[in-house]
Design goal:
Layout: H1 3-27, E1 55-61, E2 83-87, E3 96-98, H2 101-104, E4 109-115, E5 121-127, E6 143-148, E7 153-156, H3 161-164, E8 169-174, E9 180-184, H4 188-196, E10 215-219, E11 227-228, E12 236-241, E13 247-253, E14 260-266, E15 274-277, E16 292-300, E17 303-309, E18 319-324, E19 328-330, E20 333-334, E21 347-349, E22 366-372, E23 380-385, E24 388-391, E25 394-397, H5 400-404, E26 409-410, E27 415-421, E28 426-431, E29 437-444, H6 465-470, E30 472-477, E31 482-483, E32 486-487, H7 493-497, E33 511-517, E34 542-549, E35 556-561, E36 566-571, E37 593-596, E38 626-627, E39 636-637, H8 643-651, E40 665-667, H9 674-677, E41 685-687, H10 700-704, H11 716-720, H12 722-725, E42 729-731, E43 738-741, H13 744-747, H14 779-785, E44 788-789, E45 791-794, E46 797-800, E47 802-807, E48 814-818, E49 820-821, H15 834-837, H16 852-863
Length: 878
C-alpha cells in the first residue's frame, strides 16, 4: 500500500470512528448545541484544529480475554508490549515514532508519561523485559527515564545501576524548580528509621501485604539527592503540581476500615501534608456506586481534572471529572469561606457523553487518560474507547435498542487519541484507534506557565533549627473537644478550662497517645506466621511513640518524631481510648509544626483533614500578660494562645519539658490557683512502667530520657501473659502463713492446688498451655480475646456444657449445642472490655488485684489492637 493510500485509509477509519462517537452522544441524550458536533454524513474532515506541538502517548496490546482488569492498588503490574510514541503535531497525518523500542524490544512496559514545562522533554516510567526464569529479586525494576524531543536522546535519569535497582520507581512529574517528584518503593527515610530502631532495612509492604508500598520521593534532574517526602503505609501515586506549587496526588488510605483512594497535597519538602478532596465522595459513580480519584492534573482556577473509576475499572477506563478543589473538600462540603454559600456539587463531568463506571457497556464510552491543554480553549487531549458490542462475531456500535435489550455483550475496548473541545462539544480523532491496540497516557509537549516554586524550608529560617536537629516536629491541637467545629466539652470548653468550675475528674479527655504504624516486610526478609497479629489483623502491628497530657481546655502541644506515620488517640484518666480510632496516617517533617483545630466524627459525613474547613471553637486567651481564669499567675498567656501553647512557652524558658512525649501516663495539676479557684489543686497520679514487676515494653534508657527514636512495643507473651502467673500472695506476720493467694492462675486454671480437674473461675483459663485452635498462641490469650465454650465437670472430666437448642423436625429428638462464653477483652477497645476491667474497678470483685501500672499496660495493649506480637522480627517464622 502506498503512503497516500495509507493516509486515505487512516482518514476513512478516523471519520468512521468519529461517526460512531456521534451516535454514542445521541444515545446519551447529549444535544449538539449550535451544530458544532460532527454527525454521520456531515462531511467533516478528520483533522482537528491543528495544534503545532508534539504529543506523546503509550501504545500497548489489548489484554488477552480473561486477563484480570488492572487494579489501581497494584503498582507492580507488568503488562509487556507497551512503548512510548511521539508525533510532531497533534494531527492524524503526523508520523509517529517509537522512542523506546530499542530498550523494550517489544517486551517491556511503559507508563506515567509527563512533559516538561517548556515542552522539550518527557519523563516516564519504564520496565525493561523480564529475564526468563530469574527470581523477582533479580528482575529489572521500574525506572524513571527521560526523552529529549529535539535531540531524540533517551536516558535513564538515575545513572547508577546499583541506585536505580534499589526500588521500583514510577509516576514521575517535573517540579517547577527542575527536580522530579515520583512514587517509589525505595522508602529512603523509612529504611533509615528502621536501622535506627535496630531492625534490618527493607521496603515495607502495603497494608494489604500484596506489594511494597509506593510513597513519594523527590530527586534532582540528574537522579541524585533522592529524598522521601511521604510516609503512607499504602500507596501514594500519580503526583502532579498545582498552580500554587503544591504537589497533588492520589493516596490509597487503607488503615482500619478504610479502603479508598483520595486526593491529597504536600509541599515538595514533605511538609504540609493534608487531604485535598474526596474522602466522603466515593459514592458518586453510576447509580451511587463507589469510585476513586486517580491521575489528578491541575486544570487552572482551582479545578483539578481527575479520572473517577473503581479499583478495577471496566475496559481499563472510567469517567473524567472536573473537581472544584478550590472551593470544596467534598462533593457537597464547601470550604469554610464558602459555607452557607455553596452547596455543590463540586464534581462535574468533564465531557458531555455519559460514562458508566459500572461493569458492562458504557453508552458514552470510557476514558483512560486526559491532558488539559490550558491554552485558553479548555480543550483536552484524551484517550477514549467508544461503546461497542458483540453480536455473534460482529462488532457493532451501541444503540439505545441494543442496550435496552439487556443482552448486550461488550466488545474489546478500542482506545484512540482524541481532541475534546467542550465549547463546540466535539471530539475529533488525533490517532485513530486500531483493533487489538490500547492508546493511553497521552500528553502534549506544549510550553506551559510555571507553577509557583515552593522552596524547601530552611532550618533556623523557616522553622526551629533545634527541632530539626532533634528529628522532631510539633503537633499542636487547639482542643480535642472541637469536633468538626462544634464544642462538645461538657458545659463547654470555657467551663472545663476554669479550675474553679471544673475539677480534673470532670474533664473526659486527659491524655493523648501517639501511635506509630509498624512496617511489615515481605517473606524474603521475614516470613513470620500470621498468628503474630493475634485474633485480628485489622489493626496491623503498632508501636507507641509516647504520651502527652491534654490540658484543661482540650489543647495539646507536643514534639513528635519526624518522618514516621503516626496516629493520635484521646484517652481518659485510666489511659483508655475515648475517641474514635484515627485511621489516617499523619506525618511531620523535622522542624515542621502540624496544627489542627480538633478532632473528627467519622459518622458526620464531613471531612476534617484540611486546614480551611472549620473555625476553631477554642478562642484561646482573651488577653496578653494575664493567666487563664482562676489559674496559676505564673502561666500567663498571650492573646489567642491555648493552654498547651502557654504551658509550652513558659516551660521552654527552662527545659521545654512540657513539649516532650513521655513513656508514662502521668498527671500533675499545674493550673489550679488555690486562692482564685477556692480549692486545692487536683491530686497527681502516674501509671509508670517502672512500677511493673514484669518486663517493661521499652528500654531502660528510654524510661529515663525519652527521645524521638524511643518506642513502646508490647507483645502478649513477653509483657501481658506474665501478669497471670505473677505471685500475688498476702502472708501473715510470720512471713510464712498464706492469708490470701490472688495469683491469677491460682483460680483461673483447670486444676486445683492438688492437681485435680475443676472448672476455671469465671470460665476463664489463664494457663501457659498452647491453644488448641492456634498452637502458636497461648490458650490464655485465646480465652481472653476469642471466647470459648462454657465447661462443666462430669465424672472428674471437664467437658463443654451442652444445652438444648431445638428439636429435630423429623425425629423429634432434642438437639444440643455448646454454650458460648463471650470474650473478656475486645481487641481495639479497652473501654468496651467491660467483662474484664469492671472486675478491677473500685467495688469490683478483683479490685486491687492488678496494680494501676498493670491495668494501664493491659489497657493500652488492648486499645492498639491486642496483637500477639508488635514486631515481625520477634514473631515466630511461618
Amino acid at each position: 500500500m502506498t503512503g497516500e493510500a495509507r493516509d486515505g485509509a487512516r482518514r476513512r477509519s478516523a471519520r468512521g470512528m468519529f461517526a460512531g462517537l456521534a451516535v454514542v452522544l445521541a444515545v446519551a441524550g447529549c444535544s449538539s448545541g449550535d451544530g458544532g458536533s460532527v454527525t454521520p454524513g456531515s462531511g467533516q474532515g478528520p483533522d482537528p484544529v491543528v495544534v503545532d506541538f508534539p504529543i506523546a502517548y503509550v501504545k500497548r496490546p489489548v489484554p488477552d480475554a480473561g486477563t484480570a482488569a488492572a487494579d489501581a492498588r497494584q503498582l507492580l503490574d507488568f503488562r509487556p508490549g507497551a512503548d512510548l510514541y511521539v508525533r510532531d503535531r497533534a494531527s492524524p497525518t503526523a508520523v509517529e515514532r517509537n522512542v523506546t523500542a530499542e530498550i523494550t524490544q517489544g517486551a517491556g512496559d511503559v507508563r506515567d508519561v509527563e512533559p516538561s514545562y517548556d515542552g522539550t522533554r518527557l519523563v516516564f516510567a519504564m520496565r525493561e523485559p523480564l529475564i526468563e526464569g530469574a527470581p523477582e529479586a533479580e528482575q529489572p525494576t521500574w525506572n524513571i527515564w527521560e526523552y529529549d524531543v529535539a535531540t531524540r536522546v533517551l536516558r535513564r535519569v538515575i545513572q547508577s545501576d546499583i541506585v536505580a535497582e534499589e526500588g521500583h520507581d514510577v509516576a514521575p512529574h517535573y517540579l517547577p524548580d527542575g527536580r522530579i517528584v515520583f512514587s517509589s518503593t525505595r522508602q529512603r527515610q523509612s529504611r533509615a528509621v528502621l536501622l535506627d530502631e535496630g531492625k534490618p532495612q527493607f521496603a515495607a509492604l502495603d497494608e494489604d501485604r500484596r506489594e511494597p508500598a509506593f510513597v513519594l520521593h523527590v530527586m534532582n534532574p540528574d537522579g541524585t539527592g533522592i529524598r522521601q517526602i511521604s510516609f503512607n503505609q499504602s500507596h501514594d501515586l500519580d503526583p502532579a503540581v498545582l498552580d500554587d506549587g503544591r504537589i497533588v496526588f492520589s493516596r490509597w488510605e487503607n488503615a482500619g476500615p478504610n479502603n479508598e483512594i483520595n486526593l491529597y497535597t504536600v509541599r515538595p519538602d514533605g511538609s504540609g501534608l493534608e487531604l485535598l478532596y474526596g474522602a466522603q465522595s466515593h459514592a458518586t459513580g453510576t447509580d451511587g456506586t463507589a469510585v476513586h480519584f486517580l491521575a489528578p492534573r491541575s486544570a487552572g482556577d482551582g479545578v483539578v481534572l481527575a479520572l473517577a473509576q473503581p479499583f478495577r475499572p471496566a475496559d481499563g477506563g472510567g469517567a473524567l471529572l472536573e473537581i472544584d478543589v478550590g472551593n470544596y473538600v467534598e462533593n457537597t462540603q464547601p470550604t469554610l469561606a464558602n459555607a452557607g454559600v455553596l452547596s455543590g456539587p463540586a464534581q462535574q463531568p468533564a465531557t458531555v457523553n455519559v460514562v458508566s463506571t459500572l461493569e458492562g457497556p458504557s453508552p458514552g464510552g470510557r476514558y483512560n487518560s486526559a491532558f488539559p491543554l490550558r491554552d485558553g480553549t479548555h480543550r483536552l487531549l484524551v484517550t477514549w474507547a467508544q461503546c461497542r458490542l458483540l453480536e455473534g462475531d460482529r462488532i457493532v456500535p451501541c444503540t439505545a435498542d441494543r442496550l435496552a435489550a439487556g443482552t448486550a455483550v461488550p466488545a474489546p475496548p478500542l482506545y484512540g487519541v482524541w481532541m475534546y473541545d467542550p465549547r463546540e462539544r466535539t471530539q475529533l480523532p488525533v490517532v485513530a484507534p486500531t483493533e487489538g491496540t490500547v492508546y493511553d497516557e497521552v500528553v502534549a509537549l506544549q510550553p506551559q506557565s510555571l507553577p509557583a516554586v515552593l522552596l524547601d524550608a530552611v532550618p533556623g529560617v523557616d522553622f526551629d533549627e533545634d527541632l530539626a536537629n532533634e528529628g522532631v516536629g510539633i503537633l499542636d491541637i487547639r482542643s480535642v473537644y472541637d469536633i468538626d467545629g462544634d464544642d462538645t466539652a461538657p458545659g463547654g470548653i470555657a467551663a472545663l478550662a476554669d479550675p474553679r468550675l471544673t475539677t480534673a475528674a470532670g474533664r473526659p479527655a486527659r491524655f493523648l497517645r501517639i501511635e506509630k504504624a509498624v512496617g511489615l516486610p515481605d517473606d524474603d526478609v521475614r516470613d513470620f506466621d500470621n498468628s503474630a497479629f493475634g485474633v485480628t489483623a485489622a489493626f496491623g502491628m503498632r508501636e507507641i511513640l509516647g504520651y502527652a497530657a491534654v490540658e484543661p481546655d482540650g489543647s495539646v502541644r507536643v514534639k513528635v518524631p519526624a518522618g514516621v506515620p503516626f496516629a493520635v488517640t484521646v484517652l481518659d484518666a485510666d489511659g483508655r481510648r475515648i475517641s474514635q480510632r484515627h485511621d489516617s496516617w499523619l506525618q511531620v517533617r523535622a522542624g515542621e509544626e502540624l496544627r489542627c483545630n480538633g478532632c473528627h466524627d467519622r459518622g458526620s459525613g464531613l471531612s476534617h483533614g484540611r486546614s480551611n474547613l472549620f473555625r476553631s471553637v477554642n478562642p484561646g486567651a482573651a488577653t496578653t500578660g494575664l493567666p487563664f481564669p482562676n489559674t496559676d499567675p505564673a502561666l500567663f498567656a498571650d492573646f489567642g494562645e491555648t493552654m498547651a501553647q502557654t504551658h509550652a512557652r513558659i516551660s521552654c524558658q527552662t527545659d521545654c519539658a512540657a513539649l516532650s512525649l513521655q513513656p508514662d501516663v502521668e498527671y500533675e495539676d499545674v493550673w489550679t490557683d488555690p486562692a482564685a479557684a477556692g480549692r486545692a489543686p487536683d491530686a497527681p497520679f502516674a501509671f509508670r512502667y517502672a512500677d511493673l514487676d514484669t518486663a517493661a515494653p521499652t528500654t531502660a534508657p528510654c524510661l529515663s530520657s525519652w527521645q524521638s527514636l524511643c518506642r513502646i512495643r508490647i507483645h502478649y507473651e513477653q509483657h501481658i501473659h506474665p501478669l497471670w502467673s505473677k505471685p500475688r500472695i498476702t502472708r501473715a506476720a510470720d512471713g510464712l502463713t498464706v492469708l490470701t493467694d490472688d495469683t491469677c492462675t491460682s483460680c483461673h486454671s483447670d486444676r486445683d492446688a492438688q492437681g485435680m480437674p475443676r472448672v476455671p473461675a469465671g470460665q476463664l483459663e489463664l494457663t501457659d498451655a498452647a491453644s488448641a485452635d492456634q498452637p502458636l498462641q497461648k490458650h490464655a490469650y485465646r480465652e481472653l480475646l476469642a471466647g470459648d465454650n462454657e465447661q462443666e465437670l462430669v465424672d472428674g472430666t471437664l467437658r463443654d456444657r451442652m444445652v438444648q437448642v431445638g428439636t429435630d423436625p423429623v425425629t423429634g429428638e432434642p438437639q444440643f449445642a455448646p454454650l458460648p462464653v463471650p470474650a473478656s477483652l475486645a481487641a481495639g477497645n479497652a473501654r468496651a472490655s467491660v467483662r474484664f476491667f469492671s472486675l478491677f474497678a473500685p467495688g469490683g470483685s478483683h479490685a486491687g488485684r492488678l496494680t494501676p501500672a498493670e491495668l494501664r499496660l493491659v489497657s493500652e495493649w488492648v486499645d492498639i489492637g491486642a496483637q500477639y506480637f508488635n514486631d515481625p522480627f520477634t514473631a515466630p517464622l511461618d
